[in-house]
């Protein structure tokens, strides 16, 4: 599970690089990816938890990204997009595809519908955290970040400005 | 100019509007949300003394109107480049704090529009690493890493090539997905136990993750037109990827290939 969380962080960083994200933003995106995957995989251990892991994972991605965006004055997209990729139900889509190709229509439909559901729960998780947190953070914009300001300054890589 | 308007700066310089529209178009074409594009354009307009400004941003076009002048930009090609989103965001922040001359803004905008931080060859490596890590996340073994890395890099090569020759996004996704499957098919042919994880790793490089995210964020902001359009685009893209990936797989299975 720890290996999985690390891999999730690596995936988030790699996708961030692919989408031209750079510097400390990338590191934060990787951390968000690691944390959210860790929580999601703990939740998936619960028997019968279904899509709860995906939902909570997306919720955490959205919430942390919103906070990070506020602290680092970068668009929240820079954090959400790399970190959410690992939750995309690629494997379910693949299973559905192979089942249809092998004429197993029932299991193909089942996997396909599960993939749609998983994508839906990701969207709801993201939407909920963003919709709730954004107005809250905007309200306290002036007071909240001051004790946390040092986070912004301590960038790990030298940030290149274009 | 206009005798009925009192005060000054009621009729803004059309060049200002043009530059602002260019900034918005670049932001929108690189994957920015509608609310961010509108916000950035309004902030820039205010920085250049254009107070009464109306902005409408759709997923495929944008309109900006001030003092009887309207500038329209049509957005035809969209791609994912978060570097452009970040640098135009930064530019609009800088400008609203201390305005720079219009010529300089134009220059910095041109730079921001071509902001790409890594070389295309480096992108191949990133796609490969992403595919390799994903193949492990979906339950692959150590032996699956190398084919998945090759799959991811191949996918990226094909996608970049298609983009360079100007193929439509959906067709490009389909072709790239078809190529992404080849290492997995080779794995299955030589009886590597889990070809599925190789396949998923290669295909996930094409995932329309940004479209899904911006669709959700547009929906929250109430930009329903854009949210609906982007959901549709994401679904079409996912369908194109699945169709493209199915073709080589179908041929392989129809020829009696073994699939774990």
Automatic annotation (TrEMBL), chain B:
GO terms for cellular component: plasma membrane. The keyword Cell membrane applies. GO terms for molecular function: transmembrane transporter activity. It is found in: Cell membrane. Keywords: Cell membrane, Membrane, Transmembrane, Transmembrane helix. The chain crosses the membrane at residues 122-139, 174-192, 198-216, 228-253. Its main location: membrane. Residues 19-251 form the Threonine/serine exporter-like N-terminal domain. InterPro entries: ThrE-like_N, ThrE_Dicarb/AminoAcid_Exp. GO terms for biological process: succinate transport. It is a multi-pass membrane protein. Belongs to the ThrE exporter (TC 2.A.79) family. This is Threonine/serine exporter. It comes from Sulfobacillus acidophilus.
